[in-house]
Specification:
This protein has one domain (2-275): Alpha-Beta Barrel (TIM Barrel), CATH 3.20.20. It has helices at 18-27, 39-52, 86-92, 117-138, 154-166, 182-190, 200-203, 208-215, 245-256, 260-275; strands at residues 2-7, 30-35, 55-58, 69-71, 76-78, 98-107, 141-147, 173-175, 194-197, 221-223. It is of the alpha/beta class. The strands form two sheets. It has an eight-stranded parallel beta sheet. The protein has a two-stranded antiparallel ribbon with strand order 4-5.
């Protein structure tokens, strides 16, 4: 068994084939945690969790706290600005299939040109803080998105400061899709974080992710796809999906010089602890 701790099968990219995608995951022994990025995609994650015996994480992504055009390798879309509605998300989180709040956090990599960046950053911070509060109130895991500005660790450093301000002793949390430095990941580990690794570890050419893998104990790693994005080798060029989490597990096992079955068991146990899944 494997758990894809961060999937987006609730996104429109899967509107025509989500049943087949879910079936392939089931046949491959993969349990899915679908993650929302706004109120509507959070609601669809919950509905899919109810209908197909999955789990859901609900929250507001930092890039959706303002409107802009995003154009990157794997995606092109216009963000829809949303202000975090604490009570609406709290109501949605009452569903027993909801195991976490997020993905929330800070994204300094994609700040729009011609805008007041300080105002945007402050709104991101306020929105993140509200979701920390909600995760604590409801005893749900917190799923953190963090992407620093190019060539820096600035957003990671700000995330750490905010976590310290609010305390982590009563918080289960993970840093999703981690791509920061080994020094930064040590600081997250010191605060009790789980670290989400995905297909990036199969195609990173910088050597950074190998160092991160060597730094993070297997007992603190959870696996994810972040599908439909970040498709792992050997499936590069195809739309990512939860069944491909097996390739992330295989790469991790290779890097840790461990058996794939052991890696699958340990990361599954980690995910169950993070999300309080029986």
């Amino acid at each position: 068994m494997l758990i894809d701790t961060h999937a987006h099968v609730n996104f429109s990219a899967f509107k025509d084939d989500y049943k087949e995608v879910l079936d392939r995951a089931k046949q491959g022994g993969v349990l899915i945690v679908n993650v929302g990025t706004q109120l509507d995609t959070s609601a669809s994650a919950v509905k899919m969790a109810e209908d197909y015996n999955l789990y859901a994480v609900i929250g507001l992504h930092p890039v959706h706290t303002y409107e802009q055009e995003l154009d990157e390798e794997e995606t092109h879309f216009k963000t829809r600005e949303e202000t975090f509605d604490y009570e609406a998300y709290k109501k949605l989180a009452q569903n027993p299939r909801v195991v976490g709040i997020g993905e929330c956090g800070l994204d300094y990599y994609r700040l729009p040109d011609g805008a007041d960046h300080q105002t945007i950053v402050e709104k991101q911070k306020q929105t993140f803080t509200s979701q920390i509060k909600l995760a604590k109130e409801l005893n749900k895991a917190l799923v953190i998105h963090c992407r620093p500005s190019k060539g820096t660790q600035d957003a990671y450093e700000d995330i750490l400061r905010i976590l310290d301000e609010h305390g982590t002793s009563d918080l289960r949390f993970e840093i999703h899709s981690f791509t920061g430095s080994p020094a930064i990941v040590k600081q997250f580990l010191e605060r009790g974080a789980y670290v989400g690794l995905n297909g990036i570890i199969t195609f990173d050419k910088t050597g950074n992710m190998d160092e991160v893998i060597n730094t993070v104990p297997l007992e603190r790693i959870v696996l994810e796809t972040d599908c439909p994005y970040l498709t792992p080798v050997p499936m590069r060029g195809k739309k990512n999906e939860p069944s491909y989490v097996q390739y992330v597990a295989q790469k991790l096992a290779e890097a840790k010089k461990a058996g794939v079955e052991m890696v699958a068991q340990q990361t599954t146990d980690n995910a169950k602890k993070l999300f309080a899944i029986a």
